Amino acid sequence: MSLRIATACLTFACIGAAGQPDWPAAKQEALQTLVDLVKLDTSQPEGNEILAARYLKQRLDAEGIPSEIFEAEPGRASIVARVKGNGSKRPLLLLGHLDVVAVEREEWSFDPFAGEVKDGILYARGASDDKGVVTGSFQVLLELHRQKTPLDRDVIFLGVADEEAGGVKGITFMLESHRDKIDAEFAINEAGKGVFGRDLSYSRFEIQTAEKTPRRINLKAVGTSGHGSIPLKDNPVGTLARAVGRLFDHEMPPRLNETTREYFGRLAEISEPGKAEVFRAILAESPTAEDYERLRELSPVYHSMVRTSIVPTILQGGYLKNVIPSEARATVDIRALPDEDPERLFSLLKRTMGEPAVDLVPHPQTRPSHDPSALDTKVFLAFEKVLGRLYPGIPVLPTMSTGATDSAQLRDAGIPSYGFGPARPEWDLASGIHGRNEYLHVKAFEDYVEILWNVAVEIAGAP
Ligand SMILES: [Zn+2]
Fold first, then answer.
1. Domains of the chain by range and CATH?
2. What distance in angstroms lies between residue 452's CA and the mean position of ligand 1's atoms?
3. What DSSP state is assigned to residue 255?
4. What is the Å distance from ligand 1's center to 162 Cα?
5. Could you read off the pLDDT of 332-384 as tens digits, one per residue?
6. Which chain residues have CB less than 5 Å from ligand 1, an ion?
Protein backbone atom coordinates (compact mmCIF):
# COMPACT_ATOMS: atom_id res chain seq x y z
CA MET A 1 0.00 0.00 0.00
CA SER A 2 2.66 2.45 1.07
CA LEU A 3 4.71 1.40 -1.96
CA ARG A 4 1.78 2.32 -4.25
CA ILE A 5 1.53 5.72 -2.66
CA ALA A 6 5.26 6.27 -3.06
CA THR A 7 5.00 5.41 -6.76
CA ALA A 8 2.09 7.81 -7.23
CA CYS A 9 4.21 10.38 -5.46
CA LEU A 10 6.93 10.08 -8.09
CA THR A 11 4.55 10.43 -11.02
CA PHE A 12 2.37 13.19 -9.62
CA ALA A 13 4.96 15.49 -8.10
CA CYS A 14 4.27 14.22 -4.63
CA ILE A 15 0.89 15.84 -4.11
CA GLY A 16 -1.41 13.21 -2.73
CA ALA A 17 -4.87 13.15 -4.32
CA ALA A 18 -6.14 14.18 -0.90
CA GLY A 19 -4.15 17.43 -1.22
CA GLN A 20 -5.83 18.36 -4.51
CA PRO A 21 -8.66 20.86 -4.50
CA ASP A 22 -12.08 19.59 -5.50
CA TRP A 23 -11.58 20.99 -8.99
CA PRO A 24 -15.13 21.09 -10.36
CA ALA A 25 -16.28 22.92 -7.21
CA ALA A 26 -13.21 25.18 -7.10
CA LYS A 27 -13.63 26.19 -10.74
CA GLN A 28 -17.31 26.91 -10.30
CA GLU A 29 -16.56 29.00 -7.24
CA ALA A 30 -13.79 30.88 -9.06
CA LEU A 31 -16.11 31.73 -11.95
CA GLN A 32 -18.71 33.05 -9.51
CA THR A 33 -16.03 35.18 -7.80
CA LEU A 34 -14.95 36.55 -11.16
CA VAL A 35 -18.53 37.39 -12.13
CA ASP A 36 -19.02 39.11 -8.77
CA LEU A 37 -15.82 41.11 -9.28
CA VAL A 38 -16.57 42.34 -12.80
CA LYS A 39 -19.95 43.61 -11.57
CA LEU A 40 -18.11 46.04 -9.29
CA ASP A 41 -17.25 49.15 -11.32
CA THR A 42 -13.61 49.86 -10.53
CA SER A 43 -12.87 51.83 -13.70
CA GLN A 44 -10.23 54.49 -13.95
CA PRO A 45 -9.71 57.32 -13.36
CA GLU A 46 -11.70 57.07 -10.07
CA GLY A 47 -10.77 53.42 -9.54
CA ASN A 48 -12.87 52.87 -6.43
CA GLU A 49 -10.95 49.65 -5.90
CA ILE A 50 -12.28 49.67 -2.35
CA LEU A 51 -15.44 47.99 -3.76
CA ALA A 52 -13.45 44.96 -4.88
CA ALA A 53 -11.16 45.01 -1.82
CA ARG A 54 -14.14 44.93 0.56
CA TYR A 55 -15.78 42.11 -1.38
CA LEU A 56 -12.59 40.01 -1.23
CA LYS A 57 -12.07 40.84 2.45
CA GLN A 58 -15.55 39.58 3.27
CA ARG A 59 -14.80 36.32 1.48
CA LEU A 60 -11.47 35.96 3.29
CA ASP A 61 -13.08 36.72 6.66
CA ALA A 62 -15.64 33.97 6.06
CA GLU A 63 -12.78 31.61 5.33
CA GLY A 64 -10.80 32.62 8.41
CA ILE A 65 -7.88 34.01 6.39
CA PRO A 66 -6.59 37.30 7.85
CA SER A 67 -6.34 40.18 5.39
CA GLU A 68 -5.64 43.91 5.36
CA ILE A 69 -6.77 46.75 3.13
CA PHE A 70 -4.38 49.63 2.39
CA GLU A 71 -5.56 52.88 0.82
CA ALA A 72 -3.16 55.25 -0.91
CA GLU A 73 -6.10 57.69 -1.03
CA PRO A 74 -9.68 57.18 0.11
CA GLY A 75 -11.12 54.51 -2.17
CA ARG A 76 -7.83 53.61 -3.87
CA ALA A 77 -7.51 50.33 -2.07
CA SER A 78 -5.22 47.32 -2.29
CA ILE A 79 -5.81 44.13 -0.32
CA VAL A 80 -3.24 41.70 1.08
CA ALA A 81 -3.78 38.21 2.53
CA ARG A 82 -1.32 35.50 3.44
CA VAL A 83 -1.27 31.75 3.91
CA LYS A 84 1.64 30.81 6.12
CA GLY A 85 4.38 28.34 5.30
CA ASN A 86 7.08 27.02 7.62
CA GLY A 87 9.24 30.03 6.87
CA SER A 88 12.26 28.14 5.56
CA LYS A 89 12.03 30.06 2.28
CA ARG A 90 10.98 33.60 1.40
CA PRO A 91 7.37 34.19 0.28
CA LEU A 92 5.74 33.85 -3.12
CA LEU A 93 3.54 36.81 -4.11
CA LEU A 94 0.49 36.25 -6.34
CA LEU A 95 -1.00 39.50 -7.59
CA GLY A 96 -3.48 41.03 -9.97
CA HIS A 97 -4.93 44.51 -10.31
CA LEU A 98 -8.40 45.51 -9.14
CA ASP A 99 -8.85 48.56 -11.40
CA VAL A 100 -10.00 48.46 -15.01
CA VAL A 101 -9.87 50.94 -17.88
CA ALA A 102 -12.95 53.06 -18.53
CA VAL A 103 -15.63 51.89 -20.98
CA GLU A 104 -17.49 53.60 -23.79
CA ARG A 105 -20.79 51.94 -23.02
CA GLU A 106 -22.43 52.75 -26.36
CA GLU A 107 -19.67 50.78 -28.13
CA TRP A 108 -20.50 47.57 -26.30
CA SER A 109 -22.94 44.84 -27.33
CA PHE A 110 -23.12 43.76 -23.66
CA ASP A 111 -23.49 45.60 -20.37
CA PRO A 112 -19.79 45.80 -19.42
CA PHE A 113 -20.63 45.44 -15.71
CA ALA A 114 -23.29 42.71 -15.84
CA GLY A 115 -20.98 39.68 -15.89
CA GLU A 116 -22.87 37.98 -18.71
CA VAL A 117 -21.73 34.47 -19.66
CA LYS A 118 -22.83 33.39 -23.14
CA ASP A 119 -21.76 30.22 -24.96
CA GLY A 120 -18.87 29.61 -22.60
CA ILE A 121 -17.55 33.17 -22.80
CA LEU A 122 -17.68 35.86 -20.11
CA TYR A 123 -18.14 39.34 -21.57
CA ALA A 124 -17.19 42.12 -19.17
CA ARG A 125 -14.76 44.94 -18.58
CA GLY A 126 -11.96 43.39 -16.55
CA ALA A 127 -12.78 39.79 -17.56
CA SER A 128 -9.34 39.44 -19.11
CA ASP A 129 -7.56 42.50 -17.76
CA ASP A 130 -7.22 41.78 -14.96
CA LYS A 131 -9.95 40.36 -12.74
CA GLY A 132 -9.40 36.86 -14.13
CA VAL A 133 -5.87 36.98 -12.76
CA VAL A 134 -7.03 38.49 -9.46
CA THR A 135 -9.57 35.69 -9.11
CA GLY A 136 -7.15 32.93 -10.06
CA SER A 137 -4.64 34.13 -7.46
CA PHE A 138 -7.43 34.47 -4.89
CA GLN A 139 -8.76 30.95 -5.53
CA VAL A 140 -5.25 29.49 -5.20
CA LEU A 141 -4.93 31.16 -1.79
CA LEU A 142 -8.31 29.77 -0.68
CA GLU A 143 -7.36 26.26 -1.77
CA LEU A 144 -3.94 26.31 -0.11
CA HIS A 145 -5.67 27.36 3.10
CA ARG A 146 -8.48 24.79 2.83
CA GLN A 147 -6.28 21.84 1.88
CA LYS A 148 -3.76 22.88 4.56
CA THR A 149 -1.10 22.34 1.90
CA PRO A 150 2.29 22.03 3.63
CA LEU A 151 4.32 25.05 2.47
CA ASP A 152 7.93 25.97 3.00
CA ARG A 153 7.22 29.59 2.13
CA ASP A 154 4.27 31.93 2.73
CA VAL A 155 1.99 32.57 -0.23
CA ILE A 156 0.76 36.16 -0.35
CA PHE A 157 -2.26 37.33 -2.31
CA LEU A 158 -2.28 40.97 -3.43
CA GLY A 159 -5.18 42.66 -5.21
CA VAL A 160 -3.69 45.97 -6.14
CA ALA A 161 -5.08 49.39 -7.16
CA ASP A 162 -4.23 51.75 -9.98
CA GLU A 163 -2.31 49.54 -12.40
CA GLU A 164 -3.92 51.05 -15.46
CA ALA A 165 -2.63 54.51 -14.56
CA GLY A 166 0.92 53.35 -13.86
CA GLY A 167 0.56 51.94 -10.35
CA VAL A 168 1.44 55.05 -8.31
CA LYS A 169 -1.54 54.53 -5.98
CA GLY A 170 -1.15 50.76 -6.13
CA ILE A 171 2.05 48.78 -6.47
CA THR A 172 4.36 51.80 -6.02
CA PHE A 173 2.50 52.81 -2.85
CA MET A 174 2.58 49.24 -1.52
CA LEU A 175 6.31 48.86 -2.20
CA GLU A 176 7.16 52.23 -0.69
CA SER A 177 4.84 52.22 2.33
CA HIS A 178 4.05 48.55 3.07
CA ARG A 179 6.91 46.58 1.64
CA ASP A 180 6.94 44.24 4.65
CA LYS A 181 3.39 43.12 3.84
CA ILE A 182 4.19 42.03 0.30
CA ASP A 183 7.91 41.33 0.35
CA ALA A 184 8.66 38.13 -1.51
CA GLU A 185 11.38 36.19 -3.26
CA PHE A 186 9.25 35.96 -6.44
CA ALA A 187 5.99 37.31 -7.81
CA ILE A 188 3.48 35.97 -10.33
CA ASN A 189 1.50 38.72 -12.04
CA GLU A 190 -0.55 39.29 -15.22
CA ALA A 191 0.58 39.45 -18.86
CA GLY A 192 1.67 35.96 -19.90
CA LYS A 193 -0.89 33.55 -21.29
CA GLY A 194 -1.71 30.40 -23.16
CA VAL A 195 -2.72 30.60 -26.80
CA PHE A 196 -5.44 28.31 -28.17
CA GLY A 197 -6.82 27.45 -31.58
CA ARG A 198 -10.36 26.91 -32.89
CA ASP A 199 -10.84 23.62 -31.04
CA LEU A 200 -9.76 25.22 -27.75
CA SER A 201 -6.53 23.20 -27.68
CA TYR A 202 -3.36 25.02 -26.70
CA SER A 203 -0.61 25.78 -29.21
CA ARG A 204 1.82 27.48 -26.82
CA PHE A 205 2.20 29.09 -23.41
CA GLU A 206 3.96 32.39 -22.86
CA ILE A 207 5.49 33.43 -19.53
CA GLN A 208 6.15 37.16 -19.38
CA THR A 209 9.63 37.73 -17.99
CA ALA A 210 10.33 41.19 -19.39
CA GLU A 211 8.44 44.27 -20.53
CA LYS A 212 9.08 47.58 -22.19
CA THR A 213 8.71 50.82 -20.23
CA PRO A 214 6.63 53.81 -21.40
CA ARG A 215 8.78 56.92 -21.88
CA ARG A 216 6.28 59.26 -23.53
CA ILE A 217 7.21 62.82 -24.35
CA ASN A 218 5.40 66.06 -25.16
CA LEU A 219 6.91 68.37 -27.74
CA LYS A 220 6.20 72.07 -28.04
CA ALA A 221 7.41 74.41 -30.76
CA VAL A 222 6.98 78.17 -30.35
CA GLY A 223 7.37 80.88 -33.00
CA THR A 224 6.06 84.19 -34.21
CA SER A 225 2.38 84.28 -35.07
CA GLY A 226 1.35 86.11 -38.21
CA HIS A 227 -0.59 86.30 -41.48
CA GLY A 228 -0.74 83.18 -43.63
CA SER A 229 0.22 85.20 -46.69
CA ILE A 230 3.66 86.07 -45.25
CA PRO A 231 6.04 83.11 -44.68
CA LEU A 232 8.00 83.19 -41.42
CA LYS A 233 11.04 81.02 -40.85
CA ASP A 234 10.12 80.16 -37.26
CA ASN A 235 6.59 78.95 -38.12
CA PRO A 236 6.01 76.44 -35.24
CA VAL A 237 3.87 74.16 -37.41
CA GLY A 238 6.75 73.69 -39.83
CA THR A 239 9.36 73.38 -37.07
CA LEU A 240 7.35 70.79 -35.19
CA ALA A 241 6.52 68.83 -38.35
CA ARG A 242 10.25 68.55 -39.17
CA ALA A 243 11.07 67.44 -35.62
CA VAL A 244 8.30 64.84 -35.49
CA GLY A 245 9.19 63.58 -38.96
CA ARG A 246 12.81 63.02 -37.93
CA LEU A 247 11.75 61.13 -34.81
CA PHE A 248 9.34 59.03 -36.87
CA ASP A 249 12.11 58.12 -39.30
CA HIS A 250 14.62 57.37 -36.56
CA GLU A 251 14.98 53.65 -35.98
CA MET A 252 16.58 52.80 -32.68
CA PRO A 253 19.19 50.03 -32.94
CA PRO A 254 17.94 46.48 -32.35
CA ARG A 255 18.98 44.82 -29.12
CA LEU A 256 18.10 41.43 -27.67
CA ASN A 257 18.00 40.40 -24.03
CA GLU A 258 17.88 36.93 -22.45
CA THR A 259 14.08 36.79 -22.78
CA THR A 260 13.78 37.87 -26.40
CA ARG A 261 16.74 35.75 -27.45
CA GLU A 262 15.12 32.68 -25.89
CA TYR A 263 11.69 33.69 -27.24
CA PHE A 264 12.79 33.89 -30.85
CA GLY A 265 14.95 30.78 -30.42
CA ARG A 266 12.03 28.69 -29.18
CA LEU A 267 9.73 30.28 -31.76
CA ALA A 268 12.14 29.15 -34.47
CA GLU A 269 11.78 25.56 -33.25
CA ILE A 270 7.99 25.56 -33.64
CA SER A 271 7.60 27.74 -36.75
CA GLU A 272 7.37 26.77 -40.38
CA PRO A 273 10.74 26.89 -42.20
CA GLY A 274 10.31 30.35 -43.80
CA LYS A 275 9.60 32.06 -40.49
CA ALA A 276 12.10 29.97 -38.55
CA GLU A 277 14.82 31.15 -40.89
CA VAL A 278 14.03 34.81 -40.06
CA PHE A 279 14.15 34.13 -36.32
CA ARG A 280 17.45 32.26 -36.69
CA ALA A 281 18.90 35.07 -38.79
CA ILE A 282 18.42 37.71 -36.08
CA LEU A 283 19.90 35.34 -33.50
CA ALA A 284 22.98 34.74 -35.61
CA GLU A 285 26.39 36.35 -35.01
CA SER A 286 25.84 39.55 -36.99
CA PRO A 287 22.31 40.01 -38.35
CA THR A 288 21.83 42.51 -41.16
CA ALA A 289 19.32 45.34 -41.47
CA GLU A 290 17.52 43.19 -44.03
CA ASP A 291 17.09 40.40 -41.48
CA TYR A 292 15.42 42.85 -39.15
CA GLU A 293 13.25 44.15 -41.97
CA ARG A 294 12.05 40.60 -42.61
CA LEU A 295 11.28 40.26 -38.91
CA ARG A 296 9.20 43.42 -39.13
CA GLU A 297 7.30 42.02 -42.10
CA LEU A 298 6.39 38.95 -40.04
CA SER A 299 4.84 41.12 -37.32
CA PRO A 300 5.05 44.72 -36.07
CA VAL A 301 5.03 43.23 -32.56
CA TYR A 302 8.33 41.42 -33.23
CA HIS A 303 9.71 44.69 -34.56
CA SER A 304 8.78 46.43 -31.32
CA MET A 305 10.22 43.63 -29.20
CA VAL A 306 13.77 44.17 -30.43
CA ARG A 307 14.09 47.92 -30.03
CA THR A 308 12.97 51.06 -28.26
CA SER A 309 10.06 52.27 -30.39
CA ILE A 310 9.17 55.86 -31.28
CA VAL A 311 5.54 56.42 -32.28
CA PRO A 312 4.05 59.93 -32.80
CA THR A 313 0.43 59.83 -31.62
CA ILE A 314 -0.81 63.44 -31.30
CA LEU A 315 -0.21 66.57 -33.43
CA GLN A 316 -1.88 69.85 -32.54
CA GLY A 317 -1.33 73.32 -33.94
CA GLY A 318 -3.18 76.20 -35.53
CA TYR A 319 -6.81 77.25 -35.51
CA LEU A 320 -7.43 79.24 -38.71
CA LYS A 321 -6.44 78.56 -42.31
CA ASN A 322 -4.76 81.97 -42.77
CA VAL A 323 -3.12 82.43 -39.37
CA ILE A 324 0.35 81.24 -38.38
CA PRO A 325 -0.10 80.09 -34.76
CA SER A 326 2.41 80.94 -32.06
CA GLU A 327 2.80 77.35 -30.98
CA ALA A 328 2.30 73.74 -31.99
CA ARG A 329 2.35 70.58 -29.89
CA ALA A 330 2.89 66.88 -30.29
CA THR A 331 2.94 63.75 -28.19
CA VAL A 332 5.20 60.83 -28.97
CA ASP A 333 4.62 57.42 -27.41
CA ILE A 334 8.00 55.90 -26.71
CA ARG A 335 8.35 52.35 -25.40
CA ALA A 336 11.84 51.71 -24.20
CA LEU A 337 13.63 48.41 -23.82
CA PRO A 338 13.53 47.53 -20.10
CA ASP A 339 17.11 48.56 -19.33
CA GLU A 340 17.15 51.75 -21.46
CA ASP A 341 18.39 54.78 -19.52
CA PRO A 342 15.69 57.49 -19.87
CA GLU A 343 17.99 60.52 -19.63
CA ARG A 344 20.33 59.18 -22.30
CA LEU A 345 17.31 58.39 -24.45
CA PHE A 346 15.84 61.90 -24.15
CA SER A 347 19.09 63.61 -25.06
CA LEU A 348 19.43 61.31 -28.07
CA LEU A 349 15.91 62.28 -29.15
CA LYS A 350 16.74 65.99 -28.82
CA ARG A 351 19.77 65.54 -31.05
CA THR A 352 17.71 63.50 -33.50
CA MET A 353 15.04 66.22 -33.79
CA GLY A 354 17.71 68.81 -34.49
CA GLU A 355 15.32 71.67 -33.69
CA PRO A 356 16.48 73.78 -30.74
CA ALA A 357 13.14 75.62 -30.78
CA VAL A 358 11.29 72.43 -29.88
CA ASP A 359 10.90 71.79 -26.18
CA LEU A 360 10.91 68.16 -25.02
CA VAL A 361 9.01 67.41 -21.80
CA PRO A 362 8.90 63.79 -20.60
CA HIS A 363 5.65 62.53 -19.07
CA PRO A 364 5.83 61.45 -15.41
CA GLN A 365 7.72 58.16 -15.39
CA THR A 366 5.66 55.78 -13.31
CA ARG A 367 7.38 52.61 -14.50
CA PRO A 368 11.07 52.28 -13.58
CA SER A 369 13.73 50.81 -15.84
CA HIS A 370 14.52 47.31 -14.67
CA ASP A 371 16.24 44.04 -15.42
CA PRO A 372 14.10 41.30 -16.94
CA SER A 373 13.39 38.33 -14.68
CA ALA A 374 15.83 35.47 -15.14
CA LEU A 375 14.87 32.21 -16.82
CA ASP A 376 16.77 29.83 -14.53
CA THR A 377 14.70 30.57 -11.43
CA LYS A 378 12.41 28.32 -9.43
CA VAL A 379 9.37 30.14 -10.89
CA PHE A 380 10.18 29.86 -14.56
CA LEU A 381 11.24 26.25 -14.12
CA ALA A 382 8.01 25.55 -12.20
CA PHE A 383 5.94 26.87 -15.10
CA GLU A 384 7.87 24.69 -17.53
CA LYS A 385 7.52 21.65 -15.31
CA VAL A 386 3.82 22.07 -14.51
CA LEU A 387 2.78 22.96 -18.05
CA GLY A 388 4.85 20.06 -19.35
CA ARG A 389 3.00 17.75 -16.97
CA LEU A 390 -0.52 19.09 -17.63
CA TYR A 391 -0.07 19.78 -21.36
CA PRO A 392 2.73 17.53 -22.60
CA GLY A 393 4.44 18.65 -25.78
CA ILE A 394 3.02 22.20 -25.82
CA PRO A 395 5.91 24.71 -26.01
CA VAL A 396 6.52 27.21 -23.22
CA LEU A 397 8.13 30.51 -24.25
CA PRO A 398 9.47 33.36 -22.14
CA THR A 399 8.19 36.63 -23.58
CA MET A 400 8.60 40.38 -23.36
CA SER A 401 5.46 42.56 -23.44
CA THR A 402 5.51 45.74 -25.45
CA GLY A 403 3.03 47.14 -22.90
CA ALA A 404 3.66 47.87 -19.23
CA THR A 405 2.54 46.21 -15.98
CA ASP A 406 3.23 46.39 -12.25
CA SER A 407 6.01 43.87 -12.79
CA ALA A 408 8.28 46.81 -13.72
CA GLN A 409 8.11 48.14 -10.15
CA LEU A 410 8.45 44.67 -8.64
CA ARG A 411 11.52 43.82 -10.73
CA ASP A 412 13.06 47.19 -9.97
CA ALA A 413 12.45 46.51 -6.25
CA GLY A 414 14.38 43.24 -6.52
CA ILE A 415 11.36 40.91 -6.71
CA PRO A 416 11.62 38.95 -9.97
CA SER A 417 8.14 38.88 -11.44
CA TYR A 418 6.62 36.42 -13.92
CA GLY A 419 3.47 37.09 -15.92
CA PHE A 420 0.88 34.41 -16.60
CA GLY A 421 -2.88 34.61 -17.08
CA PRO A 422 -5.81 32.84 -18.78
CA ALA A 423 -5.32 31.78 -22.39
CA ARG A 424 -6.57 33.79 -25.36
CA PRO A 425 -7.50 32.73 -28.89
CA GLU A 426 -4.82 32.77 -31.57
CA TRP A 427 -7.05 34.84 -33.89
CA ASP A 428 -7.75 37.57 -31.33
CA LEU A 429 -4.93 37.87 -28.83
CA ALA A 430 -6.17 41.29 -27.71
CA SER A 431 -9.58 39.82 -26.71
CA GLY A 432 -11.15 43.26 -26.39
CA ILE A 433 -8.72 44.30 -23.66
CA HIS A 434 -8.94 48.08 -23.18
CA GLY A 435 -11.45 48.10 -26.06
CA ARG A 436 -15.06 47.08 -26.46
CA ASN A 437 -16.64 43.69 -25.64
CA GLU A 438 -13.70 42.46 -23.57
CA TYR A 439 -14.11 38.74 -23.02
CA LEU A 440 -12.65 35.61 -21.50
CA HIS A 441 -13.25 31.97 -22.38
CA VAL A 442 -14.51 30.22 -19.25
CA LYS A 443 -12.59 27.03 -20.11
CA ALA A 444 -9.34 29.00 -20.46
CA PHE A 445 -10.01 30.68 -17.13
CA GLU A 446 -10.68 27.38 -15.36
CA ASP A 447 -7.55 25.80 -16.81
CA TYR A 448 -5.57 28.83 -15.68
CA VAL A 449 -6.75 28.47 -12.07
CA GLU A 450 -5.62 24.84 -12.05
CA ILE A 451 -2.26 25.67 -13.67
CA LEU A 452 -1.62 28.49 -11.21
CA TRP A 453 -2.42 26.28 -8.22
CA ASN A 454 0.00 23.63 -9.49
CA VAL A 455 2.70 26.22 -10.10
CA ALA A 456 2.22 27.75 -6.62
CA VAL A 457 2.48 24.29 -5.02
CA GLU A 458 5.54 23.49 -7.11
CA ILE A 459 7.25 26.66 -5.89
CA ALA A 460 5.99 26.86 -2.31
CA GLY A 461 5.02 23.31 -1.39
CA ALA A 462 7.11 21.67 1.32
CA PRO A 463 8.69 18.41 0.16
ZN1 LIG B 1 -3.71 44.75 -16.74
1. 13-211+369-460 (3.40.630.10), 216-252+308-362 (3.30.70.360)
2. 17
3. -
4. 10
5. 999 999 999 999 999 999 999 999 999 999 999 999 999 999 999 999 999 99
6. 129-130
